[in-house]
Amino acid sequence: MTQQPLDLLQLWMKTVITERGGLPEKLESAAQQHGLIIEDVVAEKRGLSSRKRLSIYTSGYVARLVDCMRADFPLLRRFVGDSVFDAFAKAYIVTEPPHSPSLFDLGARFPHFLEETKPQNDEALLDLPAEIARFERARTEVMRARGTENDLPATNLSSFEIFGRDLKVQVTNCLRLLELKFSLVDFFQKTDQDETAQPDARLSLVAIGRADYCVHVKEIEPWQFAFLKACASPVSAHAAGRSAAQQSGNEPSFVLSHLMVWLPIALQFGFLQLKTPS
Amino acid sequence: MQNPRDQRLGLPNLGLGVGLRNQHFSYLMQHDPEVDWFEIISENFMDNFGFARHVLERMAAIRPIVMHGVSLSVGSTDPLDWNYLRELKTLAEFVQPKWISDHLCWTGVSSVNTHDLLPMPLTAESLSHVVDRVCQIQDFLQRPLILENPSTYLEFKASTLTEWEFLSELAKQTGCGLLLDVNNVYVSSYNHGLDAEHYIRSLPHSSVVQIHLAGPSDCGQYLVDTHDQPVPAAVWRLYKLAQDLTGGVSTLLEWDANIPDFPELVAELKKAENALQGIIPDTPLQHSEAVSNPVDFQLISAT
Question: For residue A269, which of A102, A179, A192, A216 is within the disulfide window of CB 3.0 to 4.6 Å?
Fold first, then answer.
């Protein structure tokens, strides 16, 4: 009877499953690391070889996780095509095997991976895969984060109330703010409607929020971006408006007057929440 | 005849249920569920506070829920993941499930999670290891853990126990319950040349709390647990045998890839009523290219 400790067998099998290369390379690496060869570990029965049996696990591992990546990054997959996307995803999975029990965490570092591994030259288009991935990851996070759906509904906000220094606001937990190198909002909306689109290479500021379980993706102005950043913790709308004016190079009167129109919209899109009754 | 209080660890027979899958959320928010209960994949909801959580809350208000996990990794030689267990317990406080289940397997080691249900070497050492961990988990969750037999594609040369011997001893030593997946019994028995009926007859039937049904795929020399098609006749026959031996336990149809519309899913589930009368659906085993343990049901596409 073969006597091999449980921890050794699990280390061996984990190495075979997650190591780079085809099955021969995987087995060679596992043999070097753990001193076990497949003939010592896996039983053969019914004419089905130990290699074939093990390959069901090795091929299933990659296929399963690539399926997951495809579901998490549909826009990127569509933009680069299946073969390129799968190559990106497989490289990512082999380089950064999953550690979390949640498949939601699998794609968390994918945008960073694409950024780190892109060819190093000045071609702007090479930034695009990582930027699309960043955009899609943020959108998925917004879908799953704690939202404001269970909060008491906010009372209607009078346009003049933003001038009251006691009106406090804060960004919602599900808000994500992005500074992107491409105009991805328009690209996303057109692609979502099956239209052909090519994103422009220009700086865009994006807010993604959620209200009533509906995700809102909007390109916003620099003063709006600065305002939402100023609302990271509870703050009076007036003070955040003044801060946003300073950060964006606008006059305070410009920001405060525009806030009269935009603040109710930001609340409606789930970008912001009121922290004190109006 | 068993004393009813000794059956299923005293847990109820919930009737016929299906998995709560995001592909059916819109339908379920507008229609009567038509099933007796739902099983959720715990990991789909532990870190999800969006629409999925909203649907779960709605369904939990009108139907019993069972939490079924895929990442407990009870057989791993890594330390127990207490963060995971705390999140599991928090979700249980929200859902108030009838029970919590997972698999007799390991999902990874050295902190890597393969998101697969990997087979255990069936040895005395493994048994002792799993017994210890099940006891710790049950103490923490303050309820019996229900463990499922996985589909397996390889056996370790080191194994000295059969899977039914391992599960029987595990149930005896820990008081845990068993989730008998008759499809997995069929798949593993085919792949390893075992007698599926003997497997089911050899289990401690009073420990069986729930049955899983599913359709596997014929890959020529072996079967794969793909959950992507109707339940074949051979699995229905094992289901009838298991229900006769256990005296009746909760039934759950798993369909996790190429997921059909909800009414079609319910129609497949209702075949269980005929099977219990001995009218076995003559569905053939089919070929498909899906992977084992598909994850479609764990994904919420952003599109």
Answer: A216
Sheet holding A214-219, edge to edge: A176-180, A204-211, A214-219
ipTM of the complex: 0.93
**Interface residue B252 vs chain A (CB under 8 A):** no
Q: Which residue has the tokens 């029965």?
A: A45
Model pLDDT for residues B285-300, shown as the tens digit of each residue: 888 766 666 666 555 5
- The CATH number given to B13-298 is 3.20.20.150
Residue contact B153–A2, C-beta within 8 A: no
Size of interface A-B (CB pairs under 8 A): 175
**B158, B192, B292 member nearest A2 (Cβ):** B158
Number of other residues whose CB lies within 10 A of the CB of residue A161: 17
Q: For B131-159, write each residue's pLDDT tens digit.
A: 999 999 999 999 999 999 999 999 999 99
Looking at domain A148-274, its CATH class is: alpha beta
Side by side, which strands form the sheet with A168-171? A235-236, A168-171, A272-274
Helices (H), ranges, chain B: 25-28, 42-46, 51-62, 82-95, 124-141, 163-174, 182-192, 196-201, 233-246, 262-276
CA-based nearest residue to A247, from A272, A220, A225: A225
What stretch(es) of chain A map to CATH 3.90.930.50? 148-274
Each domain of chain B, given as residue ranges in start order, spans: 13-298
* Confidence at residue B176, expressed as pLDDT on a 0 to 100 scale: 98
pLDDT in tens, B154-169: 999 999 999 999 999 9
